[in-house]
Design goal:
CATH superfamily of one domain: endopeptidase domain like (from Nostoc punctiforme)
Shape: elongated
Family: Belongs to the peptidase C40 family.
Largest sheet: 6 strands, antiparallel
Distance between the termini: 116 Å
Protein name: NlpC/P60 family protein
Number of strands: 8
Strand content: 15-25%
Helix content: 25-40%
Mean pLDDT: 87
CATH architecture of one domain: Alpha-Beta Complex
Strand order of the largest sheet: 3-8-4-5-6-7
CATH topology of one domain: endopeptidase fold (from Nostoc punctiforme)
Keywords: Hydrolase, Protease, Thiol protease
InterPro entries: NLP_P60_dom (IPR000064), Papain-like_cys_pep_sf (IPR038765)
Order of helices and strands: HHEEHHHEEEEEHEH
């Protein structure tokens, strides 16, 4: 007589509950989104300002006023170091620790609006930061202006041939602004600007060829005791 086979034991498989990890990942996603949203509006750190290394190969006139020199040198020091960010502004003295950190683009009018992009400056933001650091005063924002059209309104028009280092250069439709470095050996006007298409802060040796057409002399210099 055959022995009956013993009943098979049912193997209970442990179910992996992914709900916990899902909640954690969702929480982290929301946290990152909130950090990116708030980053552009956070104030500069209270620690001593981190200096920005000076830019090489700047041949400015020896008799150039100290404020104009500082304006150009500060802007040029960010060349290749700070990327373009639609609506990016800064009044930090020295290096802004937020630069390069992913932030949410909140300003309207760009295909990057609503996306996370490394924080940086836009064209008028570069002008603002350079002026603030040239004056050593965050209040210089009210003198140089905020935004391309506001900055143009605070300038006296100057003919192209009379542009000086530290003057501002504008596109004819006031969609872009940069800072005049000076005349090159080829006779062109070099402009420092923060360009989206060129990837951030750059020096363009041929400002007219880049699209700049208008020159403005900021009242900023007169307001701070120079011309």
């Amino acid at each position: 007589m055959r022995r009956p086979y013993p009943p098979r034991r049912r193997i209970r498989r442990r179910r992996h509950h992914s709900g916990g990890w899902g909640r954690i990942l969702r929480f982290l996603g929301v946290a990152l989104l909130l950090c990116g949203l708030l980053l552009p509006f956070l104030p500069c750190g209270s620690s001593p300002p981190e200096e920005v290394a000076p830019a090489p190969s700047l041949f400015l006139p020896e008799d150039l006023s100290p404020l104009r020199r500082a304006m150009v040198e500060n802007a040029a020091a960010l060349t290749g170091k700070v990327g373009y960010f639609w609506g990016g502004k800064s009044v930090c003295l020295g290096w802004d620790s937020r630069w390069g950190v992913p932030a949410l683009v909140t300003a309207d009018g760009s295909d990057t609006t609503g996306t996370l992009v490394p924080f940086g400056l836009d064209c008028s933001g570069l002008v603002t930061w350079a002026a603030v650091n040239a004056a050593g005063d965050a209040g210089a924002l009210s003198a140089i202006g905020n935004g391309v059209r506001d900055q143009y309104s605070r300038c006296t028009p100057v003919v192209w041939a009379e542009a000086q280092p530290g003057d501002l250069a504008f596109f004819p439709d006031l969609s872009h602004v940069g800072i005049v470095v000076g005349t090159t050996e080829a006779g062109t006007l070099e402009i420092i600007h923060c360009s989206r298409t060129l990837g951030g802060v750059v020096r363009s040796p041929d400002g007219a060829g880049t699209g700049f057409a208008l020159i403005g002399r900021p009242a900023f210099y007169e307001l701070y005791g120079e011309t």
